[in-house]
Structures are given as C-alpha cells and as structure tokens.
Amino acid sequence: GQHVAALAKDLRTGEAFKIRAKVFINCTGPFADHIRLKANPQLSERIRPSKGVHAILPYEVLGGDDALLIPKTPDGRVVFAIPFQGRLMLGTTDNDYDQLSEEPILEGKEVEVLLETLNPYLDEASSHAQVRAGFGGLRPLIAADPSQGTKGLVRDHEVEHDGTSNLVSLLGGKWTTYRLMAKDTIDFVGEHLLGEERPCITDQQILVGGEGYSDDQWQALQSQSGLEEDICRHLNQHYGSAAQGVLDVLSESESYRERLLDGHPYMLGEVVYSTRYEMACTVRDFLARRTRLEILDWDAAQQVAGKVAHAMGGELGWDEAQQLREAEQYIELLYRFREEAQVG
Question: Which of 179, 239, 234 is nearest to 209 (CA)?
Fold first, then answer.
C-alpha cells in the first residue's frame, strides 16, 4: 500500500512514463482530496473548495489609482475594486463549489452581485455591458466542521502525512503564503520521512527576473532596443532582469518587434520567447498564463489568437491545419466565457 512510483502521461503527445521517488507530495490545492482518496480510500475528505470570481471593467469606472475596499456586504463577504494593468478588477465571491471537473468561470449572476455591491459607491452606476473579461478560481479551504459555510472554514494550511500510503499532502493555504507552505512541507519531509534535516531555503531564492531588478530599468531597455516606452515598461515589469532574453529573441526578426495588437504592449516575439524558454505549448498558455491579455480583454485575446498560434506553431512544428485548430479551439473557449458571463 506504500507509494513507490507515479504513472504519468503527457496529454499533448500521449507518452506514458513512470516516476520513482522515496516520497510523493500532493500539492494539488482544491483537488487534494481526489489524490488523497486514491492513495488511501479510508481517509476522510478534508477540502471544501470555494469559488471566487473577478470581473474586469474599464479603468474609468473608479476614476483613479486608489483601490476601493467594501468590507461589509449583505452576504458578509468583502468586495474590492483594484486598478490592474490599465483596467479595474472587481472581486470577489466566496461560494461552495463541487464541480471540480469544470473550470470555475465568471457567470452572469455573479457579475450582477458584484455590480450591485459596487454601484452604491460610484457617481455613475456601472453596467453589465461594461464587463471586458473575467475569471474564476478555487480556494482549497480545510473543512473543520462540515456544517459550516465557506466563511467559517480554515484558511490556513496543514501538512498531512498518511502512514498507510506514505503520501504527504499540503492542504489549504493561499497564494500569498506559498513560500511558508513550501517551507513547512519540505522541512517536514526531511525531518520525519527522509531522516535528515535539510531545511527549505526558499527564503534565499530570488524569483526569476528579480536579480538586480529596479523600476527604472525600462529606460536602459529603451535605449538599447529603441522600442516604445509602454513596451519597455512592460518588459521590465513582466520579465525583470530576464528582459534581455526577450530582446535577444526580438533581434532575430524584425517581425518579432511588432505589437500583437494596437493599444497593448505585447509583441509577437514574446510568443516565441515564451514557447522556447517558458514552456508555453498552447495559445491559452501565452494569452492567459504568460501574459494577462485573456483576463484583461476577451475581445483582444480573440483578435490575436491566430497570430499567437502561428508564432507558437513555428517553434513547436505545427502545420497550418494545427495552427488553425489551436486558434479556433481557444476562440470557442472565449465564446463560452462570454455566454456564461452574459456579455456581448
């Protein structure tokens, strides 16, 4: 009953392979129970996923750089409106969610709740038609008492070791404490399961691009590249000291210096860089996960999907048919997002 190997499958290529290890750590957030119960069906469920969504509105809705926090709402939640990359991010909800096989997305009824909470604080009410994009996520809350609502659930984290399967599960937590979560887990495994204290050194690790970072480094990038100011600011803020690698890719072709879309700082060469050096392998990888265009503007993401598929396909060896298929599949996803959020 003890874990000695994991069977894995590459969903892009279909290749299957085996990974052997002394200890396996389950860090799957809201899906932690799914893995725990596969390892040991006798365990009780611990995770109660909570869905939170955000709607993206025009920056002008709030009319300034200051954020707005609404600490008291009819259902006892906290709602915030925060200027974010030239837009206004409005969130968030906090509701039970049990459809773990489905991506949590922004729904029309959730847009209405958020707008009804925000509008009393605005001179001019915002409308559903102003929503530019939106997204959802799941919080892996730990259930201390199954009868409680999501407001009463534990929002800290816990490291669990199941002696039957030898599986270690990191339960609960949130993005803002991920370094502490990593430290607690690694320290536990070293001390209790590997028989040696080898403390986690995450507090000594600088994020990629953080070495020597400064806010005004965009000026040196502009002097070196001749690119426009908004692009250089974007490169510095997004890649930090790794921006030089992007410039190296841009130098390979004049077309790589072209903007993907007017009004946005993203360039064609960034698609190549992300595919080559950041493991992007789908159109959505780039538009939602390497940049933030999908969560800022669904229309803009749709307009550039074909360009992204073509540039990515050049790196990954896609023929024209696959490039078209990858773009169309992504655009269909955006249509679904609009339909669920009830925006045009």
Answer: 239
Q: Are the C-beta atoms of 194 and 211 separated by less than 8 Å?
A: no
Quickly list H helices, the chain: 32-39, 108-118, 178-188, 218-225, 229-239, 243-250, 268-277, 283-284, 293-296, 298-316, 320-341
| C-beta separation of 296 from 86 below 8 A | yes
| Residue 307 exposed, middle or buried by CB count within 10 Å (0-12, 13-18, 19+) | middle
Give which of 52, 118, 123, 130 is closest to 87, Cα–Cα.
130
Predicted pLDDT at 154: 60
pLDDT digits (tens, 9 = 90+) for 103-151: 999 999 999 999 999 999 999 999 999 999 999 999 999 986 544 455 5
pLDDT at 152 over 70: no
Average pLDDT over residues 79-105: 94
CA 161, 164, 166, 169 torsion-angle sign: negative
Task: Report whether 344 contacts 108 (CB < 8 A).
Answer: no
* Closest of 225, 212, 279 to residue 257, by C-alpha: 225
Tokens 């993401």 sit on residue: 301
**Omega of the bond prior to 73 within 30 degrees of 0, cis?**
no
- Distance CA(149)–CA(128), nearest Å, equals 28
Identify the DSSP state of 291.
Answer: S
CA nearest to 271, candidates 309, 224, 320:
309
* Confidence (pLDDT) at 79: 94
Give the CA radius of gyration of the chain: 22
* pLDDT for 76 beyond 90: no
